[in-house]
Amino acid sequence: MSRPKSATPTYSLCNRGGKYYVQWWDGKQSKRLSLGTTDREEAKRALRQFLAGVDSPAAPNCPLISDILAGYIQDRTGRVRNIASIQYACAALNEHLGDLRPDHITTQVSRKYAQKRRAQGRRGATGHGKPLSDGTIIKEIVTLRAALRWAVNERWIQTAPKIEAPPSPHAKERWLTRAEVKRLLDVTGTPHVRLFIQLALYTGARTSAILELQWDQVDFERNVINYGTGSGNKKRAIVPIIPELREVLWEAATIRTRDCVIEFRGGPVASIRHAFRERVKAAGLQDVTPHTLRHTCATWMVMQGVPFEMVAKFLGNSVDMIERVYGHHSPDWLRKAATALSGFAG
């Protein structure tokens, strides 16, 4: 009986006439490659080196940016959740920089890329030509930086060029008062949208983390939600379930039909943006997005005097970021500095 063909060959050591070989099956045929040694320990080291080469994508002789982006996408696929976002960024980068070599990327090239992307606007059938924010351009530049670092690690290139990005946009100040939240919930009768709003407000999680949340991550015994590890610098946290949230979560759990917490018509929800926008409009609110709920959660905690370190843990952010973005909402913000000036009046 012939050996079944394997999509992924299994490599092993074999000894023939006192010499060691790497052996594997290619369809019905056994293949061998000499390791050039009779010493078993040397053969083991050579096998590890051979496997490292097999697992790594072959490096082009003179890789272009397009080659590096393609290799980076292939490496990230199946390992990160936001692969679609990476693919979108790489498509824009390919269009304007794909034919260049890494050593062609200079400060001037980076600036021209940003200018061209602003003039071009959004890509894709639904948003083509619409205004493009600097935040999107920054995401694309960050993706290029990550791809070039990957190419260095894979030894495709020796060094990665420095790439200039536009200045980071100012942090959005918009957050909701408790009265505004009540207005929003009052006009939200759709269960999955209402549950999303409450999860965002009471846990401060990002939209992607909430939409990916599974019921096995909700621990009713310990009263905690484990949002997982996240990816890159988008860290996620384990947060407690407050009584108001526990009640609505328990109600949703009793009627669930899927493993995902946020479900609609028996299926997972890929995007909440449209439904949320309609509820915001019905509530008569302005400049409110799903991410505004995360800002609101952080702002409410800081206004109540919760230490920056605790807020940072709750949101999965750095303490510096919390202090920089939300510090001015704290009742004790700069109070010690102001107190130090007391008593100097004549």
From TrEMBL:
Q: One GO biological process from the UniProt record? A: DNA recombination
The chain's coiled-coil residues are none
Q: Which stretches does the entry tag as region Disordered?
A: 111-131
GO molecular-function terms, A-Z: DNA binding
User: Keywords in UniProt for this one?
Assistant: DNA integration, DNA recombination, DNA-binding
Every Tyr recombinase domain range: 171-339
Q: Which SUPFAM superfamilies match?
A: DNA breaking-rejoining enzymes (SSF56349)
The record's annotation in Pfam families points to:
Phage_integrase (PF00589)
Q: Which family does it belong to?
A: Belongs to the 'phage' integrase family.
* Descriptive protein name: Integrase
